[in-house]
Amino acid sequence: MEYLSWREGAEILEADGYGDKVLALRDGTMLKLFRRKRLFTSALLFPYARRFISNARTLARLGIPVPVVVDEVVIPEMQRHGVLYRPLPGVTLRQMVLRGMVSAERQHELKDQLTRFIIELHNNGIYFRSLHIGNVVLTPDGRMGLIDFADLRIYPWSLGKYLRARNMKRMQRFEHELDWLDLPAIIAGRRGAEQRG
User: Cβ(36)–Cβ(79) under 8 Å?
Assistant: First the structure.
């Protein structure tokens, strides 16, 4: 079974009671595995792995840094679909906080950058249900990018205030991350002086 050869020597980064979820492979690529959570679901027709791949391509076309997809994999004996990809270089905002890499002044700068980034996502019609600082990567060139975006939806129009506010609900559940949000600016879709003008 090809999966066992991938798993040999790999570092398991994420797993749950159903098995492995994310593996760092020996060649530097990552393998993300998806399972169907319900018997009857849209994932039967459009598996999460394909959603991940489609979203990665669209986000890259929009100029948003994302992991580079290498291949889609199917592991029938495990009833899993997966994606092989090259990870997005950088560190998540959450990792920066946990590692003590963010001073108060730096957090203020990053919060402003994150606000502009989220506004850009929303202006591009991107509704990302799993948006939180653990899924936003600061790349080595100082840009913000996204990871773990299989449940992201892309509308052909800019999001209205209702969807912008709804999209921020999950992030507001992380009490220690509320300091990262400039909700009025995000929901209005504009920053500072732009909101008054």
Answer: yes
Q: Tell me how far apart the alpha carbons of residues 62 and 159 are, in angstroms, rounded to a whole number.
A: 16
The per-residue pLDDT for range 175-186, each reduced to its tens digit, is 777 788 888 899
Strands (E), the chain: 11-16, 19-24, 30-34, 68-75, 80-86, 91-92, 126-128, 136-138, 144-146, 152-154
Q: Which CATH number fits domain 91-196: 1.10.510.10, 1.50.10.10, 1.25.40.10, 1.10.3720.10?
A: 1.10.510.10
Residue 28: Cβ-neighbour burial (10 angstroms; 0-12, 13-18, 19+): exposed
In the three-class reduction of DSSP (H, G, I as helix; E, B as strand; rest coil), residue 139 is classed as coil
What pTM did the predictor assign? 0.84
Tell whether the torsion through CA atoms of 73, 67, 90 and 59 is positive or negative.
negative
Structure tokens at 16: 């749950």
The position carrying tokens 């912008």 is 164
Q: Which amino acid is at 36?
A: R
